[in-house]
Write a structure and sequence with these properties.
InterPro entries: DUF1206
Pfam family, one: DUF1206
Largest sheet: none
Strand content: under 5%
Keywords: Membrane, Transmembrane, Transmembrane helix
Protein name: DUF1206 domain-containing protein
Structural class: mainly alpha
Helix content: over 70%
Shape: globular
Distance between the termini: 26 Å
Organism: Alteriqipengyuania abyssalis
Number of helices: 10
């Protein structure tokens, strides 16, 4: 019988696998298909839909990205990775919350493609429009943008310091540090673009149409020449790195009470 801890671990690993597929496809499309990347996130999921067994892959991504988002939400709520409650710790935990929200939006977009309900609108834009339609919604969206700036800072710091290796099994391949570092730096660039789009929509009243997720962020960088290419290569490496995480990431154990006890990196 599979206990709660093993179920939790498998859910998180499927999440990392789904993230791996997403970033690998983003990187490949950015490097090989200008037309598809110009479609933003929709183009990414259309490309996956065209794969052999594409619909099945999309369904795996729906559950995987949703599971990964829940895992990231556990950081601000329960501090499952023992980041702490000081200013530095809360900065990391808030960054994880921003990542969780972004991956929920991606899970929703994948769901729409998996069920053939995509109408051309992006999940993130639709969600942002709903929030902007309520009182103080602009403030909420703007603050969410700030969380992405915090997340971008943390991603860049991970890439430079290699601190992410503390939560990866020593059995991981020797090149994990190199591709992970490059991937985190590229991801930081994308998070800055996403954060700026949210700040613009929330604090500057530019509208929900400009809100971006990963594919849209890359599309907005398409005219930046060598920097676009470097970022695309970095995201491709981050996808490969995420495949390694799906196998070698140290996942916090889920206790018998169904909660996650304090995490200790191995």
């Amino acid at each position: 019988m599979v206990d709660k801890s093993e179920k939790f671990s498998w859910l998180v690993r499927v999440g990392y696998f789904s993230r791996a597929v997403l970033y690998t496809v983003v990187g490949l499309i950015a490097l090989t298909s200008a037309g598809r990347i110009a479609e933003g996130t929709a183009g990414i999921f259309k490309a996956i839909e065209d794969f052999p067994a594409g619909i099945a892959i999309l369904w795996i991504m729906v559950f995987g990205l949703f599971g990964y988002a829940l895992f990231r939400f556990c950081s601000p709520l329960f501090d499952i990775e023992n980041e702490g409650s000081d200013a530095k710790g809360w900065g990391k935990r808030i960054g994880h919350a921003g990542s969780a929200i972004g991956h929920l939006a991606l899970a929703w977009s994948a769901f729409k493609f998996a069920t053939n309900r995509n109408s051309g609108g992006g999940g993130a834009q639709e969600a942002a429009a709903g929030v902007l339609g309520v009182e103080f919604g602009g403030i909420v969206i703007g603050l969410l943008g700030l969380t992405f700036f915090i997340a971008a800072f943390n991603q860049a710091k991970k890439g430079i310091t290699g601190s992410f290796m503390n939560r990866i099994s020593p059995q991981a391949p020797d090149f994990t540090r190199m591709i992970g570092g490059a991937g985190y730096l590229a991801r930081a660039v994308v998070f800055v673009v996403i954060g700026w789009s949210l700040v613009g929509a929330g604090f500057m009243s530019k509208g929900s149409d400009q809100v971006k997720t990963i594919g849209d962020a890359m599309a907005s960088l398409a005219d930046d020449g060598i920097w676009f290419t470097i970022t695309a290569i970095g995201l491709l490496l981050f996808g490969l790195f995420s495949f390694i995480l799906a196998r070698y990431r140290i996942i916090p154990d889920l206790g018998s009470d169904g909660k996650v006890p304090e995490f200790r990196a191995g």
